[in-house]
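Exam revision sheet. Question 4 asks you to relate a sequence to its structure. Input first:
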Amino acid sequence: MKKDEKVTIPSILSMKQNGKKIVCLTAYDWLFASILDAAGLDIILVGDSGSMVFAGHKTTLPITMDQMIYHTRAVGRGVEKALLVADMPFMSYQAGIDDAMYNAGRFLKETEAEAVKVEGGEAVAETIQQMVKNGIPVMGHLGLTPQHIHKFGKYRVRGKDSTEAEELIQDAKILEQAGVFSIVLEKIPAELAKKITEHVSVPTIGIGAGTHCDGQILVTHDMLGLYEEFKPKFVRQYAHLAKTIDQAIKKYIEEVQNGDFPSQKESF
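Answer key, structure tokens:
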């Protein structure tokens, strides 16, 4: 795929076949989406993580469909080349296939999203299958699934014991059969992620799942050092923007207070 070509579902699938790593980040607004898209990302995910890094909640659970539609519309205005995927928020697809179809359809009808992401394995396989049959591309999500945080109790590594590891392998195969075009693997052992990646024909996208996945995704606010509530082990910070912003604002406060801003050059 040429650098300036629009990324599509077939081109994402071909990247696994050609051994080319898939690069993904999250976005929640037009400005960040424009910057990320221009940089050359393959996939931009409008994550329900916006519940935490944008809205300040402690989990991803509170964000609603209408809020996700709003964020996805905003992001869509800034995306030209990357594949745009929207997260299905908590309880937008768990109550039944009809609800799931309606809500997934809203993303494709009311925003520029080209696919949706759904958390879970066998329990949501039939729902995913119906979505795909009706023309809605779906990205799966296994391992640590944040919408299940109250069931898990904490954000711990999944699949460390052999029973859970085997369940995740089987769930990945089930999702593949249901028709997903890729699977996010979150916070699982690297060797398990390697095994899953080798067992399925669709790309795996890792987040805290080691180097053997077909691609990687991080929350943009984490990798830029903007979100300081916590720093997961799997996050590499490529910048420390919270500190940079803090320094800039304090400098602004100082210069306003001592009369250095605005200067004559900045006045009319």
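Marking note for examiners. The longest helix spans residues 162-178.
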